[in-house]
Amino acid sequence: MKHKSKLFGLLAIITMLVPLFVGGIVGGAATQGNVDITLHKKKYDTMPETLKNTGEKMSQFEGIAGLNEVTFEAYNITALVYPWITRATNPLTAEEAINKVVAAATTIQNGGGPVTVEEKTLTDFTNFGSKADTKTTATVGGEDGIAKFDNLPGKTTVDGKDKDSVFLFVETAQPKNVVGRAAPMVVSLPLLDKDGKTLTDIHIYPKNLIADAEKGLDGIVDGESAKDLPTITVGDKEYKNVAVGDLLQYHIDVPIPDKIGTLTHFFVNDIPTNGFKYKEIVSVKAGATTVDSTLYTVTVDKKGTISGNSITKNDNTNGFMIEFNMKEMTKYAGETLKITYTMTVEKEILPDDPATNEATVNFDNEVHELEGPDAYTGGYHFVKIDKNSEKTLEGVGFKVEAPGKKFVNFTQDATSKEWVFAGFAESKEKATEITSGTGGKLTIRGLLKGDYKLHETTPKADYVPLTAPVDFTITHGTYKDLEEDSSPTHQKTVENIKKGVLPSTGGAGIVAFLVVGVALMGGAFIWYRKSKVNEEV
Q1: Rounded to an integer, what distance in angstroms lies between the CA atom of residue 173 and that of residue 181?
Q2: Minimal CA–CA distance to 39: which of 146, 140, 142?
Q3: Position 233 pLDDT exceeds 60
Q4: Residue 272 to residue 263: CA distance in whole angstroms
């Protein structure tokens, strides 16, 4: 089984930290040397309850996975914010100043700007202040998602006076598959621990929601919708149960990268196992909006790979690839792309083996593999024999009755000579008659689990036809174990008796015959003795 990759959709969950990190801006704090600030980039499937950062290591985040390859830049914005809060006329509070910085930085981070704040025009992050450092999250000490900014100055000179430093942290780069970015964060010094002591080793936990790319099987197409498929037990798990000819509806959900406009290639491959075949795209949506078909191209029986700066299309029997127009898809950045499509279950599907279709999502050669849900079909084996001689009988005709008193149509596989499900007949008379082949063997496959009946319709010449149908049950293992066991438990023997032939020696029939014969002979002997006595008298 291939490992399912997650496409991390960072949905811009703001961790502004304003209530905590504003203490030093108004002045009067103790002198502070350099500090280390460590960012712990955390990811969640669902957003947890709000936890206030303390500036110290927090045990609440232990065991929460981190996210690597995310780049942060730190800017010293002390000289920007102090004049706003120390001016004589209409000074801002520390919180107001930080809120304005975060709002302006968010606009620029999202591609907007220039932004004018308190008569200051901001076009990029360098207008906020000098860059202190750049770090990319990585695995440090066995923990993912770590970006450590060492030796940041605790004090910054503003108009000739040392002021407590204020830093802006912005997320500037992510893996190509990331959707959205964490909002800008502001940290002002000094920070105090629970005992009132100045912290020099500061820890911040940006919390981000992740969205997985996901592949699912919606069900069997019924009119304009998909209804649930039956299930079949395999081991201790339940899987979808399918039959040949079923039209299945699938979906692939892919978070659209926030920076999709910077990518060259974005495409999805669907790669089925033997037994599934792509039919058509039902819809492509970004959020609730239908994506126009001119924005993507579907290529059947192919899968894409990237070589150099171009896409190579390789054989992908019964599958497909869907390639998107990068320029036009930028308007959907941050949305979840849902590709809904159908596939048919083909006669090549083999019972008792998992059938699936995997997908790969490719962002400029960053490939992410998605596992499709496994599905199973069923089958059964019979052998037709002479009850007396155990000679196998070829050419005996049968019809199969499915649950619900429906009779089954079949087609015969030209290679294996097995009979493959081909839908239901209008009546028993119109159902396909299947016949035993070489060695008296008769195999059916491509059916759902359930209780069936085998009706003998054309007996072998000179043989007594069966008057009652043969009951059998299809479930997982009733087909494949014939290949794995020389004495399979699920091969049903169907016996016939030749016309005018007594049952074989030792059978119940011969015993009854002998009992009757002995009784007749005994009766004849008694009658003879009585006749002799009468004559003598």
Answers
A1: 9
A2: 146
A3: yes
A4: 27
Two tokens, residue 230? 């039956």
| Residues 114-125: b if buried by 16+ CB within 10 A, e if exposed | ebebeeeebeeb
Q: By CB neighbour count within 10 A (0-12 exposed, 13-18 middle, 19+ buried), where does 2 fall?
A: exposed
Question: Residue 283 forms beta bridges with which residues?
Answer: 340
pLDDT in tens, 239-260: 999 999 999 999 999 988 777 8
In terms of domains, do 345 and 363 share one?
Answer: yes
In DSSP terms, 135 is beta-bridged to 72
Q: What is the overall mean pLDDT for the chain?
A: 86
Rounded to whole angstroms, what are the CA distances from 190 to 28, 55, 160, 161?
10, 10, 20, 16
Compute the distance between CA of residue 113 and CA of residue 110 in angstroms, rounded to an integer: 9
Domain residue limits at 439 = 378-498
- Is 23 exposed, middle or buried, given 0-12, 13-18 or 19+ CB atoms closer than 10 A? middle
How many Å apart are CA 167 and CA 152, to the nearest integer? 9
Q: What are the residues facing 173 on neighbouring strands?
A: 71
List 494's β-bridge partners, or say none: 384
Asked if residue 493 is part of any domain, the answer here is: yes
Residue 511 domain flag: no
- Same domain for 231 and 368, yes or no, is yes
Do 280 and 171 lie in one domain? The reply is no
Take residue 276 and report the two structure tokens written for it: 């599934």
Q: What CA–CA distance (Å, rounded) separates 344 from 501?
A: 50
Overall average pLDDT of the 46-74 stretch: 81
Give the HSE-up count for residue 397: Cα atoms under 13 Å, Cβ half-sphere.
8
Q: What tokens were used for 471?
A: 């009951």
> Burial, 459: exposed, middle or buried (Cβ in 10 Å; 0-12, 13-18, 19+)?
middle
Residue 161 has a pLDDT of 93
Tell me: pLDDT of 16 over 50. Answer: no
In 100-189 the beta strands, taken as DSSP E runs, fall at 115-117, 120-122, 130-136, 138-140, 143-152, 155-158, 161-164, 166-173, 185-188
Q: What is the mean pLDDT of residues 61-78?
A: 90
Q: Which residues contact 279 (CB under 8 A, 6 or more apart)?
A: 247, 341, 342, 343, 344
- CB under 8 Å to 231, separation ≥6 — which residues? 238, 239, 240, 241
One domain for residues 118 and 184: yes
* 11 and 34 Cβ atoms separated by less than 8 Å: no
Please name the helix (run of DSSP H) or strand (run of DSSP E) that holds residue 54, with its range, or none.
none
